[in-house]
Amino acid sequence: MAARVIDGKEVARAKRAEIKARVEALAARSVVPGLAVILVGEDPASVSYVTGKEKASAELGIASLGRRLPASASEAELLALVRAYDADPAVHGILVQLPLPPHIDERRIISAISPEKDVDGLTAANVGRMLLEEPCFVPCTPAGVLELIRSAGVETRGARAVVLGRSNLVGRPLVNLLSRKSYNATVTACHTGTLDLPAICREADILIACAGRPGLVRGDWIKAGACVIDVGVTRVEDPGAKAGFRLKGDVDFEAAAAVAGWITPVPGGVGPMTITMLLDNATAAAERASGILPGSGA
Question: Is 53 assigned a catalytic role?
């Protein structure tokens, strides 16, 4: 039996409708959530992503207050811009699009964002709060992955979850979040040093591939009936495609779909949820700043 495809676009639409209602409730109190997305350089993938964030913000009534800087911008210039946004009460959330040019220290830039405006969940304070299960902003892609799993009705309690990848943006947060009592999964983190990777993947009731290696996970790596979430998105040359390339995930979709119980496509799976959860975090930041919700973070 073919796997059920988890439609990230549909789940994102439902979540955005909920966010829009919250934005309208803020507007009734004369509060407009302000999101400042800063892009440095002209990386095509980053430009496309930031454009998508700006469009989605406008559709929900969230103000886009960010700026685009040339790749030649200095670290001091970027740091000054981040600090200005951090001091601006109209800006509730700040996101610096990564990666940054090599002459800029990413950690120094991220550290300049206050935890209350760190809607990407990357500051040391928010990471620490996440580990301690305190109120915080959860990184957007992991939050989107969890939303997709919930939407599919996949049981996490007692499930064996395997996270294939250990990045600070996706893999590490997912390992922490899935092991919380609220999810109660038994989690294994895999990486380039993992021995007998296929055998470990075959034990997974929930397999999350976020290694950034197209086609890595084959059909015979999948446990029958497993939930497979493909976070990977890589541009692969395809002369037959209009753009000259196509997007490929970490999972061999056709082979895996023949075995799995649930699976996300690439594109149209995790991608739409990443932007959606950013908007969710930005709205929560505005709610907290206006006193609707207690505490800091989301």
Answer: yes
* Tens digit of each residue's pLDDT (9 = 90 or more) over 100-149: 999 999 999 999 999 999 999 999 999 999 999 999 999 999 999 999 99
- Domain identity same for 47 and 164: no
Catalytic residue among 15, 53, 117, 248: 53
Name the strands in the sheet holding 227-230, side by side, starting at the edge strand that comes first in the sequence: 4-5, 262-263, 227-230, 206-209, 160-164, 186-190
Q: Is 98 exposed, middle or buried (0-12, 13-18, 19+ CB in 10 A)?
A: middle
**97 noted as active-site residue:** yes
Q: Is residue 233 part of a domain?
A: yes
Kindly report whether the global pTM for this prediction surpasses the value 0.85.
yes
**What's the mean pLDDT when you consider all of the chain?**
95
Domain carrying residue 194: 140-271
Which ranges constitute the DSSP H helices of 88-131? 106-111, 124-131
Query: What was the pLDDT predicted at 113?
Result: 98
15, 117, 118, 120: which is the annotated catalytic residue? 120
Query: For 175-206, what is each residue's pLDDT tens digit?
Result: 999 999 999 999 999 998 999 999 999 999 99
- Say if residue 147 is in the same domain as residue 266: yes
Q: State whether 146 and 266 are in the same domain.
A: yes
Q: Is residue 57 part of a domain?
A: yes
**292 in a domain, yes or no?**
no
Distances (CA, A) of 192 to 142, 165, 233, 236, 269: 20, 8, 18, 21, 24
- Answer yes or no: 55 catalytic: no
Give the distance, in angstroms, between the CA of residue 160 and the centroid of all CA atoms in the same chain: 22
The answer as to whether 85 is a domain residue is yes
Q: How many residues does the chain have?
A: 298
pLDDT in tens, 68-108: 999 999 999 999 999 999 999 999 999 999 999 999 999 99
Domain of residue 173, CATH code: 3.40.50.720
The CATH number linked to 49 is 3.40.50.10860
